[in-house]
Each structure stands twice: as C-alpha cells, then as structure tokens.
Design brief:
The complex is a heterodimer. By secondary structure, chain A is mainly alpha-helical. In chain A, about 65% of the residues lie in helices and about 10% in strands. Chain B is mainly α.
C-alpha cells in the first residue's frame, strides 16, 4: 500500500549543482563569469606588461600636445599648432558633416528609387533594379575610390576656365565652378551680421546662423499651431478654414525679413591666378565620399522602402478606395503610416551603417575622425591603444545614441498586442 | 417551342462565331508596350527619357570598352594603337593590355606562379565541400570533404609540413572518441567536459612536439608560402570564406546567449554584440594590425592575415547573431512550449525544433551578412594587405601602367558583382525551396 508523502527533502549535495535544474543555471553563470573575468584579466595583464616593455604606459597626455599637421577641411578654427584633441574634434565634425549630408541624400534617392522600382512602367522598374543590384553587389570602398577617380580624371582643371575662350565655363549662370580640385559654390555672407561668439573659448559659433535657426523653428512651430487650430475647427464645425496662405507667410516671412535685416548676399567664386577664390570650396574628397555613400546606401534604402510598401496588403488600399479616398490620401492616411512601421527601423540601421562606412574616408584622404585621430595622430604619437580606444568610444557613442532613438521610436509605434 | 416565342424571337444564331484576333493595339508587342511603357502621358515621358539615357550611356561607354588594345604592353602602346584609329583624348578607349598582363596578379597576388595549383585546388575543394551543404541533391559522402577542408585549406594555402594539420585534426578525433567511450562511464556532461579538456591538453602540450617529431622522421610537406605573398581575389576569398564559415556557428551561440535566461551570459553576449556592431570594421582592422599582439603574452607574434581573420570573424559573428536573433524572435512562442512539453532538453530543443525554423526565417539576412562580409574584405587594403584594390594601386604605380584607372576598377567591380550577385540569387533559390506555406 502506498501513501502520498511529500517529496523527500534531501540535503544539498554537490552533484545537485550540475544535475538539478534549480542550481544548474547558477553553476553555468558562475563558471561563465569566472571564465570571462579570467580572460579579461589575462588580456589586461598581457597588455600592461607588453606596454611596460615598450615603455608606453597608457597616458592620454598626448592629447594636449600640438598636433603639427594640417587639416584641409575644418569647420572650426584649427592650425597645425592646435592640440591633438582639437584635431580629433575637427575630424569628428567632418565625420558628422558627411554622415548627415549622406543620410539626407541617401533617403531622398532611396525613397524615389524604391517607389520607382514598383512603377507600372516596365523600363523604369528594370532600370531601378539594375541600379540597386549594381550598387548592392560591389563594395562601397570601390565606389568611393571610383567616384574619386571620376572627379579627378574627368573634370576640367581650374586653368581650363582661363582666357578669352575658355574650354570650360561655370555652371548655373556662372555661380558654380566644377573643377577637378573640387566644386566651388556661392557662400552666404552677411554684411550686417552679428559676428561670432565663442563656446567655452574653444570654438566660434556664428550668431547669424543661430538666429536663423531660432527664427525658423519658431516659424514652423507657429505654422503648426495654425494647422492644429484649423484641424480643431474642422472637428468642431465640419468646415475647414483656409489657412495655406497664412501658413506659408508664417513659415517664410520672418526668415526672409531676418535675412534682409542681416544684409544677406552670396559670395561668388572667382578665378584668381591658378585657382578659384571666394565661395565655398567643397573638396573632391568630401564630394566623392558623400556621393558614394549616398548612392550605395540609397540602394539599400530603396529595397527597404519597396519591402515596406509591399508589406502592406493589397486589401488595405482596396478598402481605402472603397471608402472613397483618393490615391494620394490613401497613400498618406492608410499605406504610409503602416509602411513606416516596417521601414523606419531598418532605415535607421542603414543610417548607422552609413555613419560607420564614412570611416572609409581615409581611402580618399578626407579628414574625418578616423583620418585624424586614428590616422595621423596615431602614427605621429605611436599611442595605438589610447587613440583606438578613443576612436571606438566616439563611434560607440554615435551608434548607441542612434540605437536609443530607434528603440524609443519602435516602442512608440509598436502595435499593442494581447 | 411555343408560338409566342417563335413570333418574338426573330433570329437565333445557330453556329458560334470564330474567335477573332484581339486588336493589334491590345495584344502582342504593341499591346504590351501600351500597357507597360506608354500608359498615360507621364509614363510615356519617363519611358522616352530613360530610353534616351540608356542610349546616351551605351553610346558613351561601348566605344570605350570595344578597344583593340588587348595585346598592348604599356599605356603608351595603348595610346599609339588608339591614335592609329584616329582616337585621341582622355577617354579614347580602354587599355585592356593591363588586364591581360596582370589578371593573374589580381587573382593570386604575389603567390609563386608555379604553385598556383594550390589555391586553385583549395577553392575547387572548398566548392566540393560546400556542395552538400548548399544543395540537397549532392551526394552525402561529400560531407567527409567538408569535415576535412578546415585542415586542408590552411595547409594547402600556406604550405609546410603535412603533420601540423593532421595533429590539429587529431585533437578533434580525440575529443570525439573520448566523448563516445567515456559517456557510459561518466555520464554525458562529464564525458563532454573531459573530452574537451583532453583535446585542449593535446593541442597545447603535445601536438606541437609530436608534429615536429613526425616531420623529423617522415618529412612530408609542401613548400611554405609567406603571408605577405598572398593577395588579390585569393586573399579576399580566403578571408571571406573563413569569416563566413566561422561566423555562423559563433553567431548562433551569441544569439542563443543573448536570448537566454542566464543573466550574466546574456550580459556578456549583449555587450560583445553591441560593441562590435557599434564600431566600424576599419577600427577593428586597425586593432588587428597594431594592437592584437599587445593583448597576447609577451613575445607572441602571429601572422597579419590570421589577425585580420580573427577580427573579421568576430565582426561578422556579431552581425550574424543579430540576424539569427531576429529569426529566434519571429518564432511563435508555441514552438518553444511544444519542445518543452515533449520533454526535450535545451540543446535538443534548439537542434531539432528551434534552430531549423529560426535559421530558415533568417536565410535572407544571413546571406546578406555573407555578402556584406565578402565586400568588406576590401577594407584590408587600408591596413596594407594586397587585396585587389591594394594591388591596383601597386599596378598603377608601375611606369608602364601609370594613369590606368577605369580598367582595373571595372575588372575588380565585375568580379565582385559576379560573386555577390550569385550569392543573393542562391539565397532566393533557397528561400523558394524551403518555403512550406502556400
């Protein structure tokens, strides 16, 4: 005869650490932790010993020494007497410039190409497929050097613009000079500008730029308020007040007034001696990198956009048409809000890839942070560990902040399931 | 038939009419063009503009490509040949002589030419080894080649004594047999741990001296080739194949670690993946070229290609882990619960139920990671390895070919395109084959 008893309460035995599922996960974690710490200790002690043997104990003092090299493209004041830290900062700004420019162009191109790939026009759809396959299947580094070569080899030299009957002329009504040394575009100048102010005594920021940004933000906010009010009126009364002229005036009026007040005019590039002077000089390295990264990433973005649109089932648009919505409102109100949920996360990770790929700037001599901190500074000071640590830290910070934005977005648009 | 009906119906056709051809504007090429190219004024405009663009592109490029310079020995000769045809100027025509003279270098780098059979044999064997993995129709016996290729490949490429790969392979044989024979005695876990310990002991303590001893007694070997002679597409493919082959298992482990309930394991995996994915590959390659030796015990110094391989593999593994994690996350919860209810343990469930489905879901991502890794092998030219891009700079600094640009880049681009494009087509084929839904 059997009786129901409690399971036997056995004392803890050592073998339970392995065979009892209650304790096994503990055992595995402790072993993993110990193993990880041993590995880390091994690597760190090796590093310390090796560096001590080489006489290069980790020391970030080199950052305050004069860099001694020049950077041809700089957004803030920099001379060869500036510190390595400042050189790295100039490089970081250059990285951000090309990353932001690239992201914008790549998005615009990518959306256009992605939509055109779905076009009912057979020829256009095929051309876009060829574009996408061509750029996706060839390394981006090859595209960068290729476009750099195109710029250098096929564009006219500045001297071709000289003389009575020049071989080359300036484009866009004589305002833009496209040469094999780079593109010279008009620069914005202010005859009654506010001047600059200095941030922490480290670099100068133009008051004019800040004023324009502030006015623009305020104008768009005001225009947004007008739209919100019109929406509310429409909700309440069913009649939508006409506001487009007011919104356009609100958006652009103040900025134009400010530009006039500041004495805004354009400084045009002019041929002086053997080269152009005046205007903004966009170097070949910047243009090659920007173009290559945008064209390359655009191919990926096109695929994402296409997949996003295809992911919305045909029934959605059919239902919208059945409700009597016009095609553009179907797109805006039904397809896009749903497609964006699919498109945005991979889109942002492509921005991240573009930013990381901008480190290939080193191949065309664009002085981004890899070129300054991880290139010349590393070679001049011989401080591999410190420079590479800083370099990785910078890229990690950029990546993690973009990832944080992405996670925030994902959570805010996530479908709420049971 | 009633009378009223026969009065009202005056005509009934008794034979079917023959089918008529559709109007010429609705069928055939014209109809196709009307629906696909010229429906509406906007599409017609687009079609015309793109036709013109295509014409313009071909008119610009084809005369350049079709250029009788195959046998030229230098850029000057090319220009002479073209000048005889009345073509001068910067874009008169391509100078294909450089490809004829240097294509072997672009493929093999500075690998000794009398030993070209070794890389060729390696890649043929790699193809044979991949066949049973890639295509289910291939004979299963080829899996023995797959098992041998990790040892054959480095031996064939770098050369040296035959005993080194054999001794390293013996470690795995020891592990296998120790596991099999100890399992009844010590239980499965104990046997596995002992087998791994035995193999590690063999590799670190005995295999080196055994290999050199055997090489002393029976010296069989092939001529060693130094790493600095590696280059061209051979180098790209070597790095690509090794990184791809190693990153998949590593990536699976990392993905499982990231999905697991064990907090510490999870934290380590997340940290590793996010760190690697947060930095560009080029910084990791800088680490490979300048720092990796510093992390190891004083005096160790190993080959630059090996260091690059390590970093590229780690890089690819982190990306692979994220792709596979996506596949794991996409799997319905019921699959995990079903596996649990069948009484499978963790590894059995992963092997029999979870992984086959998760990997299938992530095939497109896995292949695009492969393509990405293969394309990223060009980055090694920045740290001075002679991959095709690095070699092209060397060729351009040759006085004969100084000024050649497009031909080299075009050749490299076409070969990369062929590799990457076939990989992406293969992934589509696999997706179709494994599709189980309707």
């Amino acid at each position: 005869m059997t009786t129901v008893t409690d399971p036997p309460k056995t004392a803890f035995r050592l073998s339970m650490l392995i065979y009892d599922t209650r304790y096994r996960s503990m055992t595995i974690q402790v072993i993993a932790l110990i193993g990880f710490m041993l590995l880390a200790a091994f690597l760190i002690s090796n590093t310390m010993q090796n560096l001590a043997n080489l006489g290069k104990e980790p020391d970030f003092g080199f950052l305050n020494e004069p860099a001694g090299y020049d950077i041809n493209q700089r957004l803030i004041e920099y001379t060869s007497q500036s510190t390595h830290l400042r050189a790295a900062f100039v490089g970081l700004l250059n990285t951000l410039v090309v990353a932001v420019l690239g992201c914008i162009t790549a998005t615009v191109l990518g959306v256009i190409i992605g939509v055109l790939r779905l076009s009912s026009n057979w020829l256009i759809a095929r051309i876009m497929t060829v574009y996408v396959e061509m750029f996706r299947n060839v390394p981006v580094l090859l595209w960068i050097v290729f476009i750099m070569a195109i710029l250098i080899e096929s564009l006219p030299a500045p001297r071709a613009f000289r003389g009575e009957n020049p071989e080359a002329t300036m484009d866009l009504f004589g305002t833009v000079a496209i040469t094999n040394r780079g593109v010279y575009v008009p620069e914005p100048l202010f005859s009654r500008g506010f001047g600059d102010f200095s941030v922490f005594g480290a670099f100068e920021v133009s008051w004019d730029l800040l004023a324009i940004i502030a006015v623009l933000v305020a104008a768009f906010w005001a225009a947004g308020r007008v739209k919100a009010k019109a929406d509310a009126t429409q909700e309440a009364t069913g009649v939508r007040p006409t506001t487009w002229h007011m919104r356009i005036a609100l958006m652009f009026g103040p900025v134009i007034a400010l530009l006039v007040a500041l004495g805004f005019h354009l400084g045009y590039p002019e041929l002086k001696g053997f080269n152009f002077a005046g205007g903004t000089h966009m170097r070949n390295s910047l243009i090659a990198l920007w173009l290559a990264l945008s064209l390359y990433t655009a191919a990926f973005i096109a695929e994402i956009v296409r997949a996003g649109i295809l992911a919305i089932s045909k029934g959605q648009s059919e239902a919208a048409f059945a409700l009597g919505l016009r095609p553009n409102r179907t797109m805006n109100l039904v397809i896009l809000p749903q497609a964006l949920r699919v498109i945005i996360p991979p889109l942002i990770s492509n921005y991240l890839n573009l930013t990381k790929n901008s480190s290939l700037a080193i191949a065309v001599g664009y002085m981004d942070i890899t070129g300054t901190l991880g290139g010349i500074t590393l070679n001049q000071t011989g401080r591999e560990l410190e420079t590479l640590l800083l370099l990785m830290l910078v890229y990690l910070t950029i990546s993690l902040s973009i990832s944080a934005v992405m996670n925030w977005y994902n959570n805010s648009v996530k479908l709420v399931e049971r | 038939m009633s009378i009223t009906e026969s009065d009202t119906v005056q005509f009934v056709r008794e034979t079917m009419l023959d089918e008529r051809e559709p109007p010429i504007t609705a069928a055939g090429p014209v109809g196709w063009a009307r629906t696909n190219l010229f429906n509406g004024w906007f599409n017609s405009l687009l079609t015309l503009v793109s036709l013109y663009l295509i014409y313009w592109l071909f008119a610009a490029i084809l005369p350049w490509i079709i250029s009788p310079t195959w046998n030229a020995g230098s850029l000057t000769q090319c220009r002479e040949i073209l000048a005889e045809q009345g073509k001068t100027g910067h874009f008169a025509g391509a100078c294909w002589g450089v490809i004829r003279e240097r294509w072997l270098q672009l493929l093999f780098g500075f690998y000794p030419s009398e030993l070209y059979w070794r890389p060729i044999l390696t890649f043929v064997l790699t193809g044979v080894a991949l066949a049973p993995v890639l295509f289910s129709g291939a004979p299963r016996k080829l899996l023995y080649v797959t098992a041998a290729i990790p040892f054959l490949m480095p031996w064939l490429l770098w050369g040296g004594s035959v005993w080194v790969p054999i001794c390293i392979g013996l470690g795995f044989v020891i592990m296998f047999f120790a596991n099999r024979f100890l399992a009844p005695v010590m239980g499965s876990l104990g046997a596995l741990v002992t087998a791994v310990v035995l193999a590690v002991l063999w590799w670190f303590l005995l295999s080196g001296s055994v290999a050199s001893g055997l090489a002393g007694i029976i010296p069989i070997g092939i001529e060693p080739v130094a790493s600095r002679d590696f280059g061209g597409f051979m180098l790209s493919i070597t790095i690509g194949v090794v990184a791809i082959g190693l990153s998949l298992p590593l990536g699976i482990l990392l993905a499982l670690g990231r999905q697991s309930d064990l907090l510490i394991v999870k934290a380590i995996c997340v940290g590793f993946i996010e760190f690697i994915r947060g930095v560009p590959l080029i910084t990791l390659l800088f680490v490979a070229s300048t720092l990796l030796n510093i992390f190891l015990p004083p005096g160790t110094s190993f080959d630059i290609i090996l260091r690059v391989l390590i970093m590229v593999t780690l890089f690819a593994a982190a990306y692979m882990a994220e792709v596979i994690r996506g596949g794991l996350a996409a799997l319905p919860r019921g699959q995990y619960e079903g596996a649990d209810s069948l009484g499978l343990d963790y590894w059995q469930a992963q092997r029999l139920i979870i992984m086959p489905q998760a990997l299938k879901i992530s095939i497109p991502g896995i292949v695009s990671t492969f393509i990405g890794v293969f394309k990223d092998t060009t980055l090694v030219s920045i740290i001075g390895l002679l991959d095709p891009l690095g070699l092209s700079q060397g060729i351009r600094s040759d006085t004969n070919w100084n000024g050649i640009v497009w031909e080299l880049y075009g050749f490299i681009a076409v070969i990369f395109f062929i590799f990457c494009f076939s990989m992406s087509r293969y992934s589509m084929y696999l997706e179709r084959k494994l599709k189980t839904t309707n």
